UniProtKB/TrEMBL annotation:
Belongs to the CFA/CMAS family. SUPFAM superfamilies: S-adenosyl-L-methionine-dependent methyltransferases (SSF53335). GO terms for biological process: methylation. Gene3D superfamilies: Vaccinia Virus protein VP39 (3.40.50.150). CDD domains: AdoMet_MTases (cd02440). Keywords: Lipid metabolism, Methyltransferase, S-adenosyl-L-methionine, Transferase. This is Class I SAM-dependent methyltransferase. Its EC number is 2.1.1.-. One of its GO terms (molecular function) is methyltransferase activity.
Length: 423
């Protein structure tokens, strides 16, 4: 009885400080907080109480996925409560030398050819029909570009595809390589609107088969190609005029990032441009979000995923011999993109459940649905608050020719201003 009273006395001020009304129902049946609260946590097991008290929102999320805790409320309210539970800044961790050493060894072990294929298929091969419920019609599974405030998600995704193609200055007849081409949004846009020969690679079997069907349906054989291939296995392929890589370097791993950029350098013709678009860490030293949030993502959503600060990405890009010519932070655009995905999933939860149950047993389907609900809204919150960011980095491979370019003697095939992107 005394322990229960102590617990209640600890929980009451914790809930009172949250930015939304919240209540907790314990396994004993006792309840703390207003009955008609915006967020309700119903504990089936006492295991998760420690996570609640310690501000380990990732561990609390895992308890929700596993069914130890039920959560009721709107996604935005749930995330506001989660942020209020934090007891420390989730991006300010400074790793020790030992932590850095262990992290590098772990990264090397996680990113072999076979493990990367397994990890990509774990996420992207969950269910095409499930993703189709909340993505735009082109199934572009990366940050959109809200060129104007009134754009729909579908319009903003098309704007993003065009933004990339303009930055790369794609020209008819050029050979364009998309590393990690997803459901084909960028390679189809580039081929159909810019006249390039587009070559995509993916490790997802579902995405590969989907793109192959679209190539046939669109009659783009000979202009668009997709392969099940790792970026480290490009022997025998001629270099490309332009290269894009969207939502890819998060899967490469810290230990392999230098090799990733060396591959881009080797596969890019002199004078060519490459654009990498990916999620970057909000803090300089942290490889993942604190408070258990990084662990949650690794366990349920992106096994093997690693985040690096943009300064680290630029460092390894420069070490490879590529010259960074333009960097843009689209962090607020990704917050809005993720809220659009979250809202779409929230509106179609019953359909999403039916899709997953048709493919998996009911238990796995329910766990996946709970995980994705928390993942989409949680990532929206993280981008909104600046805990993580999204950068597009445009780089060139210097050709050494001082007699070409906009201004002779400058050794630059890249324009002297950004006007060409926004025309």
């Amino acid at each position: 009885m005394g322990c229960m009273k102590n617990l209640l006395s600890t929980l009451e001020p914790l809930l009172a400080k949250l930015p939304v009304t919240a209540s907790v129902q314990l396994a004993s049946g006792e309840r703390i907080g207003p009955e008609q609260s915006a967020v309700q946590l119903i504990f089936r097991s006492p295991k998760a109480l420690a996570a609640l008290l310690d501000g380990q929102v990732g561990s609390l999320g895992a308890a929700i996925v596993e069914g130890w805790v039920d959560v009721k409320g709107q996604a935005r309210d749930i995330m506001a409560a989660a942020a209020g539970l934090l007891q420390a800044d989730p991006v300010q961790h400074r790793p020790t030398w030992l932590e850095q050493t262990v992290s590098k060894a772990k990264s090397l072990a996680m990113h072999t050819l076979s493990r990367d294929a397994e990890q990509i298929q774990f996420h992207y091969d969950l269910s095409d029909d499930f993703y189709a419920l909340w993505l735009d019609p082109r199934r572009v599974y990366s940050c959109a570009y809200y060129q104007s405030a009134d754009m729909t998600l579908a319009q903003a995704q098309e704007a993003k595809l065009d933004h990339i193609c303009k930055k790369l200055r794609l020209q008819p007849g050029e050979r364009f390589w998309d590393i990690g081409s997803g459901w084909g949004g960028l390679i189809f846009w580039a081929a159909e609107n810019y006249g390039v020969q587009a070559h995509g690679i993916t490790l997802s079997r579902n995405q590969y088969e989907y793109v192959q069907r679209l190539i046939a349906e669109k009659g783009l054989q000979g202009r668009v190609q997709v392969e099940l291939r790792d970026y480290r296995q490009m022997d025998g392929v001629e270099p490309f005029d332009k290269i894009g890589s969207v939502g890819m370097f998060e899967h490469v791993g810290s230990a392999n990032l230098p090799g990733y950029f060396q591959t881009i350098h080797g596969m890019l013709k002199p004078g060519g441009l490459a654009l990498v678009h990916g999620i970057t860490a909000g803090g300089v030293g942290n490889a993942e979000l604190g408070a258990g949030m990084g662990d949650f993502i690794s366990r349920y959503i992106f096994p093997g995923g690693e985040l690096m600060h943009v300064s680290r990405v630029q460092h390894d890009m420069g070490q490879s011999g590529l010259e960074m010519v333009d960097t843009e932070n689209l962090r607020p655009h990704y917050a809005r993109t993720l809220w659009a995905w979250s809202d779409a999933l929230e509106a179609r939860m019953d359909e999403a459940r039916a899709v997953l149950v048709a493919q998996y047993d009911a238990g796995r389907a329910e766990r996946a649905l709970r995980a994705y609900r928390l993942y989409l809204a949680g990532c929206a919150m993280a981008f909104e608050r600046g805990w993580i960011a999204l950068h597009q980095l445009l780089c060139s491979k210097p050709d050494g020719n001082l007699q070409t370019g906009v201004m002779k003697g400058a050794q630059s095939s890249y324009p002297f201003n950004r006007e060409y992107i926004y025309r």
